[in-house]
Amino acid sequence: MKIVIYGLTITSSWGNGHGTTYRSLSKALASMGHRIHFIEKDVEWYRSNRDLPSPSLLLGGPL
Questions:
Q1: Which of 51, 50, 56 is nearest to 38 (CA)?
Q2: Which H/E stretch holds residue 36?
Q3: Phi and psi of 31, rounded to 5°?
Q4: From CA 63, how far away is CA 48, in angstroms rounded?
């Protein structure tokens, strides 16, 4: 199943408690064979503080 998630950010957990939750949820769903497409709002604060610049590495393939 292809799952689309609209969220604040998955690429930055800086000052954002949702980032780690989105990462864990996405990784678990991907491990069960689901395709995850995460759409995040491009906010300057999170863009300049990314600690996961390539989410595809987390999920084992392109988002």
A1: 56
A2: strand 35-40
A3: -65, -20
A4: 21
pLDDT tens figures, 7-60: 888 888 887 788 889 989 998 998 999 988 888 888 888 888 888 877 775 665
The H-or-E segment that residue 35 falls in is strand 35-40
Distance CA 31, CA 34 (A): 7
Tell me whether residue 27 is exposed, middle or buried, using C-beta atoms within 10 angstroms of its C-beta: 0 to 12, 13 to 18, 19 or more.
middle
Selection from 40, 32, 47 nearest residue 63 by Cα: 40
Residue type, 18: H
For residue 5, what are its two tokens? 């998630």
pTM, full prediction: 0.77
